[in-house]
Structure formats: structure tokens, C-alpha cells
Amino acid sequence: MIVDLKQKSQVTIPSALLKKLKLNIGDKLDIKEKDGKLIITPVMVVPRDQEWYWSKEWQEKERRADEDLGAGKIHSANNIDDLMEQLEKD
User: Are 46 and 59 spatial neighbours (Cβ–Cβ below 8 Å)?
Assistant: First the structure.
């Protein structure tokens, strides 16, 4: 698609692409240059105090937890003694 570069370096993203990529006003976009081309990527900005959650290590733990949940590897405890007994079995 061809678009015009407007005043103040603004570019309008065609509505078909907005819908396809589910972009909304206010979304953040990362713009990089690579081999003479502009690469525009939608991004989510994460507050620093929450960035640990998005680390590769933590996401791997989340993936494994999801697998365990899907496989039915879950327990429930009625009280602390019940919980400690189950933890000792594992």
C-alpha cells in the first residue's frame, strides 16, 4: 500500500491494516530501520516493576504451569496441614 508522508512526519495507516492487526488509537508502535526499510511493530509497554513477569525464565515457568493445569496435575487443600502433606508427597 502506498501512503503519503504528511506534515510533522505523520503517516496514516490504512483502515484495513488497523482492523487486521487490531490496532487502536493510543497503541504503541516500535519503529526501526532495517536495510533501508521501516519496520513498524505493535508493542506493549510494561512498567518496570512488572518486567520480571515477561522475562524468558518466568514465561517458561508459566508455560510449564499451564501444561500441568491442562494435564490435571493440580491439588487443593482444605487447611495448612493438608497442604503440607501434599507438598511432602511431591
Answer: no
What CATH number matches the domain at 7-43, 3.40.50.150, 2.10.260.10, 1.10.287.1080, 3.30.70.3190?
A: 2.10.260.10
Residue 90 clears pLDDT 80, i.e. is over it = no
9-66 pLDDT tens trace: 999 999 999 999 999 999 999 999 999 999 999 999 999 999 999 999 999 999 999 9
Q: What angle do CA 69, 71, 72 make, to 5 degrees?
A: 65
d(CA 65, CA 81): 23
Cα 20 from chain centroid? 18
Q: Which residues contact 62 (CB under 8 A, 6 or more apart)?
A: none
Write the DSSP symbol of residue 55: S
